[in-house]
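Sequence, structure tokens quoted for completeness.
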Amino acid sequence: MMSRIGGVITALLGLAILWYGAKLALAGGSPFYVIMALGLIVSGALLIARRQAGLWIYALTLAVTFIWTLYEVGFDKWQWIPRGALVIFLGLLLSLSFVTNSLSDRPQKPWEPSLKNGVFALRAVVAVIAVLGVVAWFYDPLSITGKLEKTASADAATDPSGIAYPADDWTAYGGTNLGQRYSALKDVNIENIKGLKVAWEHHTGDLRKEDQDSKEYTFEATPIKVNGALYFCTPHNIIQSLEPETGKVRWSFDPMMKRDPFYQHQTCRGVSWNDSTAYTGPADSTPDQQAAATAAVAECPRRILASTVDARLFALNADTGELCKTFGTDGYVDLMEGMVDTNRATYQQTSAPMVTKDLIILGSAIADNYYENNPSGVIRAFDVRTGKVVWKFDASKPNDTAPLAPGEHYEPNSVVAWTQFAADETLGLAYIPFGNASPDQVGIARTPEQEAFVDALAALDLKTGQLKWKFQTSHHDLWDRDNPSQPVLLNLPKDGVDTPAIIIPTKIGNLWVLDRTNGKPILPISEVPVSTDTDIAGEKISPTQPMSSLNFTPAPLREADMWGATPFDQMACRTTYNQYRYDGNPWTPPTTTGSLVWPGNIGVFNWGSVAIDPVNKWLIGTPQYLAYLYKLYPRQAGDLNKRVFGGDNSGGESKPGNENLGGPYAVSIQHFRSALNAPCNAPAWGVRVGVDLKTGKTAWKYRNGTVAGQQFAGIKFPIPFEMGMLAHGGTLTTAGGVAFTAAALDDSIRGYDMQTGEVLWKMALPAGGQATPMTYRGKDGKQYIVVAAGGHGSLGTTPGDSVIAYTLD
């Protein structure tokens, strides 16, 4: 009886696999699942007849499947799951005595090898696979095991640019405007890190409201510590000041941000600081200008500068939290002044303003693909005390940096720089990482002026805004490959000479390493030929794309790289892979029939950037790997405002697509996932890496993060398998030899050895830690590590409102 039940289950499994396998084969994919299915069907039929030959056929099918699995993916245990887990489990059940004893021709000696002994054959195959599975469990073909070598004294306190490395304080988003995310503190080190405990936890009280806020509601803030206090912003741009040793609130200020669920991103990554106590005014100022500056300093000698998602810039007294009324108009600057094409929810501010001695330098964030015509992406420098515009840099008018005259406006649709900036005040340069001009996936309407700055890193004169040099990281971007990361500044050897360098991480995985005085490459660059075929009339695709010799761009995606929790969703992913255009490189152009884009627009690197040890010349990063599906939907020429996706939809990840109203194409951008909500590309989806920047070589690489808490088919996975998760956030490095990150999707913060990549300490967070940790020394002499934990709406991590500090007992 049990053999017949087993036979029915086997035959039904075979029929189901045949259905999906035939669809895959007809789509041009692997025919192997058809072969597997036929083996299962024949095996099932024989078992229904209670013949042990059914076990022979099952053993043969299982053995061939395992050989095919090794051929496709080698000893990657996580890729064995969709190919063999189900059939191995069923094979194990069929080999048990309660099934084999019901066979009409069961062998007298089940463990005796014989051509007629199907029981032995199946048990032997299952046993061999089980042994190899144990071997594979302790082997990871993805890992690189090595060690970064120390090359300098870890006691260095000052960067070659003259900027002191952060220690007691953390005065800017990236530690300093060099963007290194490095602290010279070493109280917490590889020897004692396991003693880190929660020192305090603060709840901001700022939580998402379903009907008023964007789905992509995220707490991505990195606090600063200066002036004896911690300062940070919440997703609604509420600024809070805490006592660094206890987390006690000193003051809180709410700018009353206008809520709107149509914002593409509702977040605030940080605030900035300026100390004007010693300011005496510019030497060439008029008496009126001098009087205004003097009054501003008297009102707010130390100030916190922040911007809002609803497009305002404001200044607060750092000691009291009160508005600096002499700044702008009653404390605020309206960032929409001088803008045109100001449609609903198209212009936002999400990154911390960059503040130098005298200036606030602020970019523009424009919603991707909501509209064809958008506000300007202008870069503006404001007087840090009065809020007056000192200069502008509009990529569509790069030579005109003077403030707008009355009646003038900024150039609409100019290229955007939305992320964090960096500066070298000794060289007098600000570094602006530009992105794309919306619509990201269609370039037919771009002007030559726009094309010149798409995905460019621009070095601007701090005093005047004049362009000094620029470097483009891609040509004719059609993939939303904007430069998303804060540039990182340090000194590196070039031809034996200590050279001021800049590193620009990109979504495609390139790490561009340039001389920051002139934009010339320090590490080699090559041009890669790509296909220029497209079905978009008027699109002029670049025949080549640049690649850096230092990159974490993934290998071409194969059908064999498709993944799933079961063979069924894996086959569905394989079928989709074959139905979409994919050129075998990261530059498959978007099409009206559908294109597979790998890596996708979330990037290998994003706003979390990378962290470095500028003393030892190490880079620590968390590359991430997800594939996306792009599809363009043409509109009728006479009705460019007709919605393609229906409903009142201005775009955003929570919607089925981005309308790009007024343009000839709407665009759908979907994460390439299976029906069970698992990524279709195989894990790892995120890794951590350690790079020696003197040589450009990766010393170590490991999967980063577990799948604990991830939802598959609506069910949270409970087991913390270290498969390597997306890490949307940044990393902190320290002179203690320890790096910290909390950005992986498993709601945990980790500390690991920077030399080897080994995880030394891990602690659960109350919510997703999609932010960047920072560190400082309190008045009590202790080193604290602090991270915001509030989750990420679009990534589905646990929501919350925590700021948590850790210190040694």
